[in-house]
Amino acid sequence: MASLPPLRTDLELIPAENPEGERKSEGWLIYDGVRNRYFRISRPTFLALSFWEECDESSIAERVSGLMGTSLSEGWLDDMIRFLQVNQLLKTETAESIGFLKQSKSAGRKSAGHKLIHGYLFFKIPLVRPDHFLTWLLNVLKPLLTKRTFFLFALMGVTGLLFSSRQWDQFLVTADYLMTPSGVAVFMVALIMTKIIHELGHGLAAKKYGCRVPTMGVAFLVMFPVLYTDTTDAWRLPSRQQRLVIGAAGMMAELTVACVATFLWIFIPEGTVRSAVFMLATVTWITSLAVNLNPFMRFDGYYLLSDYWHVENLQGRAFALARWQLREWLFKWQQPMPEAWSSAKRRQLIFYAYGTWIYRFFLFMGIALLVYHFFFKVLGIVLFLVEILWFILLPIYRELSCWWTHRKDIKMKGTSLRFLVFCGVLAGILFYPLDARIEAPAEVTASDLSVVYAPSAGLIRNVSVNTGDQVQQGDPLIELTSPDLEHELAQTGLRIDLLNNLLKRTVADTDYSQSEPLLRKQLAALGQKKEGLLSQQQRLVIRAPVSGRVTFKNEFLRQGRWLNPDWPLLRVVKPNSYQLQAYIDATELNRLAKHAEAVFYPDDMTRDTSEWMFSRIEAGNNHILETHYLNSEFGGPLLTSKNSQGQAVLSMGYYKAGFVPVDSMEGLPVMTGQLHISAGSKSIASSVWSSVSSVLVRESGF
User: Fold this and answer.
1) 136 vs 453, which has greater pLDDT?
2) How far is Cα 82 from Cα 88, in angstroms, rounded to an integer?
3) 547: which DSSP letter?
4) pTM for this structure?
5) Which 8-state DSSP code applies to residue 53?
């Protein structure tokens, strides 16, 4: 009779909770203290391990079957021994076991390239062993860890949110502080503090239930640092509720900080301290609710959902079930389900798996673009391709490889027809030319306009026009008066009268005759001055510089108000002098046809749409954005940044195209909006290819 391979003597058998529901676990774990790992086992495996040393291969199956009341499947013992070997739970005393261990180690050895990719995608750095510190901290904080205290914190949070909503304007003003360099620094400090508090929350909850916390450190997800706490020991807890508390403790700690910070923000006066408290509150609210509760990534929300559903290794098992279901929908291979689930649980897991795949697709695309722009050009392209190939294309390739391997099982029946229809619909979506227009941000301006300014500071006596009025060149628009000018003109007139009287005396009185030349010289100067003052007075009647329509009238134009000569008062536009400038994405330029028609949709919904025709396009793409109306800095749609000269530089490649109106247009202000241009049809696939190829061409100049 063959003896059973010896078990390691340092292993522990730990009872675990029996999850409620239709799919019951057997409630036992093997704990490997050397590697700090747990393995859930079935009841037959537990019974076999209980008297492993007492039996041999021929008797153990019979003994377990007797206790279970059912016969075990053929090969059950071989599968169990293989499970123990693979997970290194057996002693390595014989040459055979040592050889198997070496073989497993050799098979698990990865290439340098594989290690580099995995190291870039994810790696951990343990920093501290906090077990003793957490024990001390738990004793210190124990008086605060009560239901009354948490109720008080919740009340503070509700009060803070209520009063913050009533001071929303001040709240937004405080948010502007984030855009400053000091605001960014405070934000980073607040983020680090909240993450440390988050991890301490996990550690304290684990210590409360008697678990060991061996390490705390930092993990890097695609080079992004994330703090972590090793709470693996929570698996030994028999209570699912206790594991849920440990999983939620980090978020509860963050939310406690958020409640206190939001409450304090109400009472702290304006200044750096209030801005810092604001940062602490917003960071904790956002990271707790938007990040940590996300079940699609392996954050707290994922583990909480896993425990709530009683499904360990949730993603792996859900993904396996979703792949099986997809193959059944398409091919009806009638393969056995990876695991036996109830219909309700199966729907939950499939919905979760597909939701995770969709979420991860967009997440990894975003990360790929982020690393592409974050690193220097060559490394950015390499890391971008790694993200796309490893996380998006590789899983698709593996699934297609599985389909190809089982291609012989596909029979031309309804299921195959369903698959062909699926492929046809997918190809149609990707390659059918759906888009027959180009959408571009645009601005309508007048090519021939005159802006009216006051010649000098003056007081408004009369305004003769309003917005929309038609005027002719030379028509009076605004009449101003200047008290200083009128006073000086009156004084000049009095001095002229005085000199004229003196000249009359020189004729009758010889004593004044000698001063006649000087008096006439002074009189001539005053006459020239009076003409100049009268000319200035005439200029105070502002007249239309050109014939056209008034499209803008300053809101300060009211009788009795003083005007600053730097203020624009009116804008007069000649008829039919409007032009439209649109910014076309470089990838869409090849679809722009000569004399293409377009429709302009103003951002101002009170304005009507208008028809335009393509006339020209400037040579070379425009990096400098001259208009402020479309600049993202002023709320426009075009993303810009500042260069060393302070100019607005477009962040993407655009070509500026000119359009002329189809019909005559009058009385329009400067308008922004969207221009829809008739263009050649374009499919999703060609759009993606154009974007990718343009990036490759642009970045090929290393």
Assistant:
1) 136
2) 10
3) S
4) 0.54
5) G
